[in-house]
From TrEMBL:
UniProt GO MF annotations: chromatin binding
Residue runs in coiled coils: 163-193
Originating species: Sphaeramia orbicularis (orbiculate cardinalfish)
Function field: Component of cohesin complex, a complex required for the cohesion of sister chromatids after DNA replication. The cohesin complex apparently forms a large proteinaceous ring within which sister chromatids can be trapped. At anaphase, the complex is cleaved and dissociates from chromatin, allowing sister chromatids to segregate.
Keyword Lipid biosynthesis: no
Bias type Low complexity, positions: 963-973
Location in or out of the cell: Nucleus; Chromosome; Chromosome, Centromere
Family named by the database record: Belongs to the SCC3 family.
Protein name: Cohesin subunit SA
GO cellular component, one term: cohesin complex
Length: 1135
């Protein structure tokens, strides 16, 4: 790059016109234009004429040009293009840029190009101008430094005593200072020309990329030369553009501001801007673009670091809750903010003194307390894992301080010091478990991220070290924690999750078997003390993990588990005998003994194979007794059903993994058959929980023991296959209709949170019931026609079950298209019959009920998709069944009256659009077989369904969307149709005809002043006095995408064609307030570099409170072109 620039400088010194011509052609060709500016054009034509001539050279149809082309080559081109401009100014900064020719020519050309209607010219020239400005700012900064150095040398020499003062040196310094001053004035004029001629117009260009370039570069100027640019006159442009409608522009604003707020010395100059735009920045933490939200949070964090008083409590709270965001980068950024705000203000010495006094090994006690309080105050207790993940990167050292957490939980209260409350202890235990999980698994919780990523070697080593560290600590601490909190089910359930993250080899390697015995002892005590499902399942899972065969501790744990199961099964058998003997005379103690032991065994049976204890026998006896006597408590019945289910599954596992004998298969079949019969009988139980449990287990077992059991080479399991008979299928269907498709209980209208939670839980349960039955239909275990009763509720219960029913419909269609179509029409027939029963044969076809059936039919028709060939036979069958149903029953009053079901044809007509032309004729012929001659001549209202259905079959034959004469013709037809649809869409947006041959328009200014049409009223969400409002009041019109070869002469047509507002809103209060502010603070548009020490006489920059005077000067907004041709064969200087 250096050599290229040096060669150009040499050519410029020899013939500056030819050198500048090369530079002009460089900018023209880098825009993607194949035209070339000749020397006579350069000498004899104005810039506007040259640009117009070059516009005519765009002869490509593509809208791409170098700056918009994808790929690494064009990315490198952009970098080299910018680098060339920077090096050019750097090499010319001592002489050529001050010759009043080179820079004037370049700036004039770029200004003209930046005002062009051609997007490629405007984009490329704006980038070049902004990089040129950045290079000039760097030159100005160097001049300022040299001036200050010269001034110091001058003052030092002048302050010498007369005998030692060198007058010649003083004169040289004065001459040098004058020369530097003149150069600085020249640079100021150049920067003013670029800023006022290009920036103030293009920072609100219609193209987001151009706006982003402007904002990115002004951020560079403010950081590079803060004395000149870091003031309100320039900051206001960044502030206004924070409201840009495009995320990439808002992102550039935030990054530009981050570079400024990173420097603590610049905070005083940013104070006014912070006060003015702080609310907008805080609101951007909720930006719809996640990248923008992340950068906004980081900017708010930088503001907090610079001045804690700048943010109010409300501002901080707006960021706090983002630690629970599902988007991890947003949450991590919010976690960094939370860390800075809450965990960076502690006094280390005081913390260490307190820890020493309390005998703690860690000084983080107060910080952990603060974390617990924050977690409780946020009232999102189920999101502890999200909170930990958000803070993991910024507060990892604190979150891994498990010693301190344990000490806080185990320490006894000391007089005069506050101890953790019960809620705080529960919260701390939950947070501790989440930190352990995060350290052991080394990936975010479920719901954050797209899945487990591959860990690097460093991350893997950290994970192993953390797992070893937490294991060594909690092997000793966990038994003590369980001992202290064994009476609290919530705390115990959380604590018992910890062993699953242990490195169990540590027990053997560290000879810590005594701690294992202590743990097993505590778990046994917990099992004996609790009957809560969560606690028992946690105990069962812990035993399962500790019994893993890969670890040497397995035998020790297995012995303890077997002893526990032996005791529980003996107790269960004894209590069952007592309960069955006493029957109706059983008291609460007998019931509790059975229930408590059965709950424990069921929880363990879920994770452990207990078939050798034969729990199924006693459970089956309880269920049979309950059915025969009708007095079995519902909880015992539910637990007995579940335990029996687990027993059957474990027996099936043993059979499938081994080599079963015929006797084994017969025995299991007998068990399954008897259990299915019991479950079927339980469907009529008076207790809803029992019925629901029996239904779910029936569906699960029918799925497991279906015809799919023998797939995959397991034909030997054929004796275990069960196919439900019609009676069982009907009972299952009736259960769904009675317990799923019910209206929400309207008894309590309190609307309190608990009631809402109960409703959500009930809905979740009903969805599970429906999904279980639908799976049986999808896998062809229950006959597909049973789905008709499900499909008919699609519209009525769409909000609750729409997704389940739609998926069922989709899967059944994949299985059998024709049978699925028959099922759909059957569901509509059922609804129609129900309507006839309610309203009688004289239906009111305008009623909401009829409209509901038609709407359901329309929805069903949409599910057939666009490929009519694939669904041809299914749709034809549907019409055939519909016609037969419509004419099935003749009117008892005589043949001159319409058939009873004739009105169903109006519903059936919703599917006519899915018939192809030939099939419409076939269906019409089939319809005529059922019609008498008199029917076709009837025109009374009662015959309208027949008339409308016939018309739907007779019309559209010539206009049908598809041709089926051949495969190729059908494809051609669809393509033509797609093209015509696209063309019609284009015609709707293009209201004016395109002239054939028009001259290229004059490319001067892009401003159009007219009275705004009604559709261009400012956005009601935009604040009065905002930039949108300003542009509206002043008649500034933004124009849409145009092609210079198809340039409309009617400018109103241009405005109405694809108008694109730039900003969503602008944080300016009102125009009146702006004028008031302008009276007090005058805007300074001229770039006036701050006075050096030798320029005290120059006026200082006056403050500016973000007024829009600059915008008043700017009256141009670009007309965008989709055209920006760039040929692949074009060559450029920058490689």
């Amino acid at each position: 790059m250096q050599s290229v620039v040096d060669e150009w400088i040499e050519s410029y010194k020899q013939d500056r016109d030819l050198a500048l011509l090369d530079l002009i052609n460089f900018f023209i060709q880098c825009s993607g234009c194949k035209g070339t500016v000749r020397i006579e054009m350069f000498r004899n034509m104005q810039n506007a004429e040259i640009i117009r001539k070059m516009t005519e050279e765009f002869d490509e149809d593509s809208g791409d040009y170098p700056l918009t082309m994808p790929g690494p080559m064009w990315k490198k081109f952009r970098y080299n293009f910018c680098e060339f401009i920077s090096v050019l100014i750097r090499q010319c900064q001592y002489s050529i840029i001050y010759d009043e020719y080179m820079m004037d020519t370049v700036i004039s050309l770029l200004t003209g190009l930046s005002d062009s209607q051609v997007r490629a010219f405007r984009h490329t020239s704006t980038l070049a101008a902004m990089k040129l400005m950045t290079a000039l700012v760097n030159v100005a900064l160097n001049l300022s430094i040299h001036q200050d150095n010269t001034q110091r040398q001058y003052e030092a020499e002048r302050n010498k005593i007369a005998g030692k003062r060198a007058n010649e040196k003083l004169e040289l310094l004065l001459q040098k200072r004058k020369e530097l001053q003149e150069n600085q004035d020249e640079i100021e004029n150049m920067m003013n020309s670029i800023f006022k001629g290009i920036f103030v117009h293009r920072y609100r260009d219609a193209i987001a990329e151009i706006r982003a370039i402007c904002i990115e570069e002004i951020g560079v100027w403010m950081k590079m030369y803060s004395d000149a640019f870091l003031n309100d006159s320039y900051l206001k442009y960044v502030g206004w553009t924070l409201h840009d409608r495009q995320g990439e522009v808002r992102l550039k604003c935030l990054k530009a501001l981050q570079n400024l707020y990173t420097n603590r010395e610049l905070f005083p100059k940013l104070e006014l801007f912070t006060n003015r735009f702080k609310d907008r920045i805080v609101s951007m933490t909720l930006d719809k673009e996640y990248d923008v939200a992340v950068e906004a949070i980081r900017l708010v964090t930088l503001i907090l670091q610079g001045s804690e008083d700048a943010l109010s409590n409300e501002d901080c709270e707006n960021v706090y809750h983002l630690v629970y965001s599902a988007h991890r980068p947003v949450a991590v950024a919010a976690g960094e903010f939370l860390h800075r705000k809450l965990f960076s203000r502690h006094d280390p010495q005081a913390e260490e003194a307190l820890a020493k006094r309390r005998g703690r090994s860690s000084p983080n006690g107060n910080l952990i307390r603060m974390l617990v309080l924050f977690f409780l105050e946020s009232e999102l207790h189920e999101h502890a894992a999200y909170l930990v993940d958000s803070l993991w990167e910024s507060s990892q050292e604190l979150l891994k301080d498990w010693e301190c957490m344990t000490e806080l939980l185990l320490e006894e209260p000391v007089q005069g010091e506050e101890v953790l409350s019960d809620r705080q202890e529960s919260a701390l235990i939950e947070l501790t478990v989440c930190t352990i999980r995060q350290a052991a698994e080394a990936h975010p919780p479920v719901g954050r991220g797209t899945g487990k990523r591959v860990l690097t070697a460093k991350e893997r080593k950290t994970q192993i070290d953390d797992k070893t560290k937490l294991t060594e600590h909690f092997i000793m601490a966990l038994p003590m924690l369980l001992s202290k909190y064994q009476a609290d089910s919530e705390k115990v359930a959380n604590l018992l999750q910890i062993p699953q993250f242990f490195d169990l080899d540590v027990y053997s390697a560290g000879r810590m078997e005594k701690h294992l015995d202590a743990l097993l002892k505590q778990i046994r005590l917990v099992v004996e003390k609790h009957i809560e499902t969560d606690v028992l399942e946690a105990c069962s899972k812990t035993y399962s993990i500790l019994c893993s065969e890969e670890y040497t501790i397995m035998n020790r744990v297995d012995i303890a588990r077997s002893q526990l199961i032996d005791e529980m099964t003996d107790r269960f058998a004894h209590s069952v005998e007592e309960l069955l003997q006493e029957a109706e005379e059983a008291d609460d103690d007998d019931i509790y003994n059975v229930l408590s032991t059965l709950k424990r065994l069921t929880a363990f049976h879920n994770a452990h194979d207990l078939t050798r204890w034969d729990l199924f026998g006693n459970c089956y006896r309880l269920l049979k007794a309950g059915i025969e006597q009708g007095s079995m408590p519902e909880q015992i019945a539910v637990q007995a059903l579940q335990c029996s289910h687990y027993s059957i599954l474990w027996q099936l596992v043993k059979i499938t993994e081994g080599a079963p004998t015929k006797d084994d298969l017969v025995a299991l079949r007998r068990v399954v058959k008897s259990f299915l019969a019991v479950c079927q009988q339980c469907l009529s139980n008076v207790n809803t929980p029992v019925k629901e449990q029996a239904f779910m287990l029936l569906c699960d077992l029918l799925m497991i023991f279906s015809h799919q059991l023998v797939s995959g080479g397991r034909e030997g399991l054929q004796p275990l296959v069960f196919n439900p008979d019609s009676t069982l299928q009907n009972e299952l269907l009736n259960f769904v209709l009675d317990h799923v498709f019910i209206d929400q209980d309207d008894e309590s209208q309190k609307g309190d949170e608990e009631d809402e939670a109960n409703k959500i839980e009930a809905l979740h349960k009903r969805r599970n019931l429906l999904a279980a039955f639908c799976k049986l239909i999808i896998y062809d275990i229950v006959d597909m026609p049973a789905a008709a009763d499900i499909f008919k509720h699609y519209m009525k219960y769409y909000n609750d079950y729409g997704d389940i029913i739609k998926e069922t419909l989709s899967k059944t269609r994949q299985t059998d298209k024709i049978l699925c179509a028959k099922t759909l029409i059957l569901s509509l027939q059922q609804l129609f019959n129900e309507l006839l029963q309610d309203q009688g044969p004289n239906l009111d076809r305008t009623s909401s009920h009829v409209s509901g059936i038609k709407e359901l039919a329309r929805r069903f028709a949409l599910t057939f998709g666009l490929d009519q060939i694939k669904t041809r036979e299914a749709v034809a069958t549907l019409h055939k069944d519909g016609i037969e149903f419509a004419f099935k029953y003749q009117n008892p009053r005589g043949p001159e009256f319409p058939p009873i079901n004739l009105a169903f044809l109006e519903v059936l007509s919703e599917f006519s659009s899915k018939l192809i032309r030939q099939d419409k004729k076939t269906v019409h012929s089939y319809l005529e077989k059922f019609m008498s001659e008199s029917m076709s001549e009837r025109r009374e209202d009662v015959w309208l369904p027949l008339i409308s259905y016939r018309n739907s079959l007779l019309t559209g034959g010539d206009e049908d969307h598809m041709s089926v004469t051949s495969g190729s013709s059908s494809k051609t037809g669809s393509v033509r149709k797609e093209s015509s649809v696209e063309g019609s869409w284009m015609m709707r947006n293009d209201t004016l005809p395109t002239p054939g041959a028009l001259q290229t328009p004059q490319l001067t200014s892009t401003v159009l002043r007219e009275n705004r049409p009604a559709e261009h009223m400012p956005d009601p969400d935009s604040e009065p006095g905002s930039e949108n409002d300003f542009l509206y009041r002043n008649g500034v019109v933004r124009c849409g995408t145009l092609n210079p070869r198809k340039f409309h002469t009617d400018m109103r047509g241009l405005m109405e064609d694809d108008a694109e507002p730039i900003f969503e809103d602008v944080m300016m209060s009102s125009r009146g307030q702006l004028e008031d502010m302008n009276e007090e603070f005058e805007d300074t548009m001229v770039i006036d570099l701050p006075p050096s020490r030798n320029r005290r006489e120059r006026a200082e920059l006056r403050p500016d409170f973000f007024d829009s005077a600059a915008m008043i000067e700017d009256e141009s907004v670009s007309i965008r072109f989709s055209l920006s041709p760039f040929g692949p064969g074009a060559r450029f200087w920058v490689n």
